[in-house]
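Sample 1 of the test manifest.
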Amino acid sequence: MVNFGSLREAIKRIDIPTLIIVFFLIGLFILAAATKVSVTTLLSDSIVRIGMNGVLVLAMLPTIRAGIGPNFGLPVGIIGGLLGGLIVMQYQVAGPIGFWIAVGISIVINFVLGWIYAWLLDKVRGQEMMVETYVGYSIVAFMSIMWLVLPFTNPEMIWAIGGKGLRYTLTLQNYFDKALNNFLRFQIGKNFSFPTGLVVFFAGSCYLVWLFFKTRPGLAIDLTGQNELYAISSGVNPKKARRNAVILSTVIAGVGILVYAQSYGFLQLYQAPLFMTFPAVASILIGGASIRRATITNVVLGTILFQTLLTVSLPVLSQVTRGDITEVLRLIVSNGMILYALTRTPKEAS
Amino acid sequence: MQKRMSLKDILIANAVPITFFILTFLAVLVAKIPILFLLSEIVRRLSRNTFLVLALIIPVVAGLGLNFAIVLGAMAAQAALFFVVDWGITGLSGILLAIVISSVISIFLGWIAGKTLNRAKGREMITSMILGFFANGVYQLIFLFFVGSLIPFKKTDFLLPQGVGLRNTVDLFGIVDGALNDLLTLNIGFITIYIVPLIFVVGLCVFLTFLLKTKLGQDFKAVGQDMHIARTAGIDVDKTRIIAVILSTVFASIGQVIYLQDIGTINTYNSHEQIGLFSIAALLVGGASVKKANIWNAILGVILFHALFVVAPSAGNRLFGQPQIGEFFREFIAYAVIAFALAMHGWRSRKGK
């Protein structure tokens, strides 16, 4: 039985920006149908991009629920993920198995990194978002030095000239390129192919995180985020809960970048990790999360809306304007969304 | 709370400038750069960058923290310069016109920024940073897609081949390049000192010192210390904060004009981005914190930070055989200094509770 009251309630709770984006998206699809752009190709591409970015968005969930806000230090986890991928390449593990080994290594590395990162964030309670951002920037700059000096020797990874230092982008073609995308992939018609493995992986990650928030440590995180004093009185250690949330977020970020990389076909080093953070933060916010409250639904909905928007706007808008307006659109939409979330009236935000 | 500070307290309070001094000193030793060259570079950077760094002081005093939204002022300055270039107004009159136009735009942008930051009390810094990114998107939209189509632009050399959107670099040579620098120069041996930009810097220092002594300045301080107490004392807190942001944005725009006439070319889509980062890092290196900053922090910071900036690539080259490492290293230092200062701020405000 459909409860109309709660339905109306749900519609009322949808944010204005989310609505704007939904309408914009519908408009784009209508425009796409009117022009010569193939809607099925667009849908197919959108699904790939949703699966590709979804896990990174999922990494935002634990810290928001713990009351720390979105994890602006996403690059910390991404670095761990990249290291996993690099080690697999160094030992020349070919094929999809490399993906799982990389994931395993990245989880171990990120557990340690996340622990240190969580310790730091605990010291700076109240200033987390700013510190996170700059820790992210710092670690990316620091690792840029490391990419130049770490002793990787696989000739496919290092500069052809000089023989020292990793390249900017490493092709995964002989490694775990499309490890998930091609798993059980099937084709419908000429233009639509469904990356089963990728979608299953994203869904599975969401399910695991959802399950985690039903367990004791997960509930402790929720309680800490909602009301710290109440959490203490119910016998929860908020420090520990926040630490778990940060570690979880870091680990998911590492897995997320590997999922992204296998779909993209390249590992991107140096400055690249920096460009992952803000779109991920924006995605979960577009899905209806605030900086203090988020659900799996927000993650899935937000990723679908944001990525579809980006995928669809490129071919459709390029028919109307010249040049690549999507990059600018992405800057405005994602930062505008974060700005909206940060400046909401305190009552709503907290 | 007047208490004599022990040597240890002084060392801890000035940990960042002292560490940075040692670091820079070592880098200078390693890099083996001629000392005269280093001096001339520092003098030039003092006249080029200090104004921008000084623009950050008022928001810190008014309790808004580090104003990452000074990039809005920088964008206003660039917008103004583009039109000066388009109208072909050269020399000093070009610069003055650019300053006037950019100030007007900055007052408007600063007002918006102030309004926005008032809605985000307690998280001003992250909001100002995101505001900068957002404004960057709007800036790109205007200068990549609107210029030449919606906004007329006569100098087609500066437009992309399709006739819409500005090129990546806009050359100021022959228009306003060095228009302030070359008014009055002083040569001491190898070192050239550009007097006029330095006069601007000194003027702003004097103005800031004077301003902080006025009623408005006292209001800034009161609001910065405690908003609630300030409110009960009858100060319009929101308005005071908006004024602080407007002043900061306007100074930043003037600072960016000074900076760009020295550099001589505008990187249309990059020049403004680094300004926020490097100015803030310089101020913090000079010993400022999120809650405390004065003109000496700015000046000392510019000297130390830019000395390292000059020598880092060659130091990296000497130590590791790769100049790239030095470049990444100075970038790392800029970010790490900010991260450290923010962490200290968070740590202290937690301990204080």
